[in-house]
Structures are given as structure tokens and as C-alpha cells.
Amino acid sequence: MTTELFEPLTPADCDLQDFAFMPLDVGRLRDSDLAADETPEACWAAVLLWAASWHQVPAASIPDSDVWIAKQAGYAQRGKIDRGWAQVRDGALRGWVKCADGRLYHPVVAEKAREAWQAKLAQRWRSECARIKKHNQRNKTSVPTPDFDTWTAQGRPTGHQLPVPRDNTQSPESVTRDEASKRQGEGQGQGDLNTSVPDGTGAEAPKAPAELTKQELWAAGKSLLLQAGMPAAQCGSFVGKLVKDYTDTIVVEAVRSAVVQQPADPASFLKATCQRLAGERRAGASDDKFSVAGNDYSASRAAAEASMARAGITVPETDDIPL
Known about the structure:
By secondary structure, the chain is mostly helical. It has a three-stranded antiparallel sheet. A two-stranded antiparallel ribbon has the order 2-3.
């Protein structure tokens, strides 16, 4: 006759390895049958197994391996089980049940683990909602903040890329020749950058940062780093390291932001922007130190623009572009 096994007592992804402390219900332990009926050695071995299960995944579970269990309880060395284990084994494993995933679970430890896991998820959800709220305030967007159940059903996403509004200026295709000519005339003599191309030249209009492809952005990022004095051999590996740490989607947005803002220290700016987009850094915490000082802004911007011109990149007329 086959005995039906319990379903696992904690979720399969219940990971509390970053929880250094395990709750211990003092009164419950003191008045338990374990404390009343078992030897002190068995009680101590039981507590060690509870502690070991707290940092397993799923939390509150242990593998159904006598050697592993004896070792965690202090009764095995070099793969050999101590003779004394047989005398304390039943007491140390008091209350543990085998579940359908083949692991042993302790119901009381599982109860505490579920509470801690729920609190951990709730904190992640609150942090994600705060990130979305700040994104909406900064970019004047209206990305909805999900309730906890919806967020859980979506797979508990955190730090994912949020939609950013594009520049409100019209693309060259949507601007009539008269409007383009007027805009070109208005920019003359004022130091404004112009993305229009004279009629009849057959040349394509340079792209604004929001329209650059990924490959063009890589070239722009490396150009900024090279202009700032980074050796050419290191520019590619620096960008590659950012992609490895933060994904290419985040790095693309960071480079796009650098092309617009023209920071004095592009390497530090790119690193900080990637951290902010990934949720590792508070937005605006130290952005000022990357900006160009007022007296040096024109010279630095002009130098960077000259470098980026070789890649067919121009900077828009205004720096006030949502990121």
C-alpha cells in the first residue's frame, strides 16, 4: 500500500539565505514534547537541523540523506556516521515529514519560513512600487503600480526597464520643407545644433540620440570614453563589462543618456546610470559630480560633439530630455 506524501510545506523558490536570524518561539519550544521527552543531546541535534533547514532552498527543508542529516547534527565526519547518531536520530528528527518532492520538512520551521518569505516578497513589491512612482514623477509618465497579487501573478518582476517618453520634437520625415527651412533659419547665429540637411545634397539627416541603433550607441559610448582619455583598448572591454553586469538594454539607455548629457567623466556616469536603472542606486544621489562645470561646459561639449560627429551623431537642441 502506497502512502500518499504531503505537498511541500514551503514554496519551491522560498530562499531565506540572506536571513541571518531564524525566529525561535521560546515558550513553544520550552513546553514542547521534544524538550519534555528527548535527551539534551537529541534536543541540541534537533535545533541544529532546524538551523540547517532555514538556509536550504526551499527553506525549512532538508534532503532525505542520513549522512547529510547526521553531519549537520554533528554526528558525521569524512562521510562516516558516528555510532552515537543511532541513539539521538529519532529525537533529532522528531516532527519532520517527507513530502512529494522527496525532501523532509518541519511544520513549525516551515510556518516561520512562510511568514519570513511573505515579508521578503512584500518588501520587494513595495520597493518596486516606489521605483515606478519615482519613474512617473521624473518622466511625467503614468506607469501603473501593480497590487501585490497582480505583481505576484506577473512573476514578481523587479528592476525591469520602464517606458520612457520620446523627445517631443518631430522627426525629419514629419516636418515639411518650409518648417525645416524655418527651423534652420531660426537656429543660425544662436549656437543651436541643427539636424536638418540642405535640400538637394542627397545626404541623410544625422540621428538624434533617441533614434540611434544599438550598434551606433556602442560606437557613441566608446567615442565618449576615448574622448575622456580612456585607452582605446579599454573602451570596448569597459562597455562589455557593463553589459555583463547590467544587461545590454540597461547599458543602451545609459549610453543614450550620456550622449545627451555629455558628462565630464563618462565612465563614472555610465556606471552610476546603470546602477540607477537596475535599482541599485538612488536616482539623483550624486549625479552632480558627473556634470560638466559651467566654465568648461562649452569646451567639453564641443570636443565630445566633434568626436561623435565621425559616427554621424548629433546632440539635440535641448538637454532637457526625459531619460
